[in-house]
Target: Transmembrane protein 70
Amino acid sequence: LSTEATSEDGKLIYTGSLARAVRGVKLFSYSTSGASLLIMPHVLLETGLGVQSFAVQAVFCGVVGFFTFLTPAVLHYVTKGYVIRLYHDADRDTYTAVTYSVFLTEKRRRFHQRQVTIPAVSKMFTSFYADRMGLLVNPDLFPLPHDYNHLMGYDKPFTFDMDDKNTAEK
Model:
């Protein structure tokens, strides 16, 4: 049982199963938003809305503009932390998380294991924070559970001492 896909970022330890779906949905959203921007002047002129009152034009453009710009923005906000690949460099104990940028290019975020924090309250689109950036992974998709445990710090000694908790929060 080995995941020996290595690169300059380290060994590939995680591949997100929804990477193609996330990219496809964002691409579809961007293309429909672009198409609606191209069609908007034609619709205004052909339907007669261009000669209607300013209030009718403002309402129509506001509704169409709301969905044209808000949908891609919300999609990016929801999916910006979705990790499509995660690499681990065991020599330096650093991780490289690959996510999609707003322009659908791959964005690399490098962080050390000590920068990983787990949210105190479970969040819908965040598994952990890496240097204050929320990232989302599916623990079931790690081929080796030890890789996930090490990433999250579950392999560190556990203590019940309340003083340790108070110093960690500061």
Q: What stands out?
A: DSSP finds four helices and eight strands in the chain. Residues 117 and 132 are 8 Å apart (CA to CA).
